[in-house]
């Protein structure tokens, strides 16, 4: 059984892709790194996917889906961060009402950093196939006020990233992915 965390590596032709979506790739990598460094071993596999071809129509995600859809019942949740890694506010979630209640409970663990909201839908080009077929999905929700200042522009560089805000985003990704991967049962569909 798999809990998938992800971001995409490609960028728009004029940008470096630091924010869109290097930040999402980084926090996904960091989540698994933190879990390993803490010596935690969840019941399910945590899988990192660094998508390619998202800006070109999601071709990398389509290929991955085609290769793995026969095991769709083993995917517990698919998570994608693709709207920058600014100050996080919560998690977008797509799934059953029962699964949403579980995710709300998990998010209470993030009260110390004031990131507890669960929004009505998850977004993500790279996880859309899975959610369409009933796999629960999650997307990072953050302060996107500055996102379109840099989106698909030459200004999308590493200087846009705030390390403290990225650490908060990584904390959200780490807690959510680990707790779901370590629960007794998969999220209800």
Automatic annotation (TrEMBL):
Keywords (A to Z) from UniProt: Carboxypeptidase, Endoplasmic reticulum, Glycoprotein, Golgi apparatus, Hydrolase, Lysosome, Metal-binding, Metalloprotease, Protease, Secreted, Signal, Zinc, Zymogen
Annotated coiled-coil segments of the chain: none
Family annotation (InterPro entries): CPQ (IPR039866), Peptidase_M28 (IPR007484)
One GO CC term on file: endoplasmic reticulum
Domain of life, source organism: Eukaryota
Major site of localization recorded for this protein: endoplasmic reticulum
Keyword Hydrolase in annotation: yes
MF terms (GO), sorted A to Z: carboxypeptidase activity; metal ion binding; metallodipeptidase activity
Domain Peptidase M28: 1-173
Listed GO biological process terms: peptide catabolic process; proteolysis; thyroid hormone generation
Cellular location(s): Endoplasmic reticulum; Golgi apparatus; Lysosome; Secreted
PANTHER family, A to Z: CARBOXYPEPTIDASE Q (PTHR12053:SF3), PROTEASE FAMILY M28 PLASMA GLUTAMATE CARBOXYPEPTIDASE-RELATED (PTHR12053)
Quaternary organization: Homodimer. The monomeric form is inactive while the homodimer is active.
Family statement: Belongs to the peptidase M28 family.
Protein name: Carboxypeptidase Q
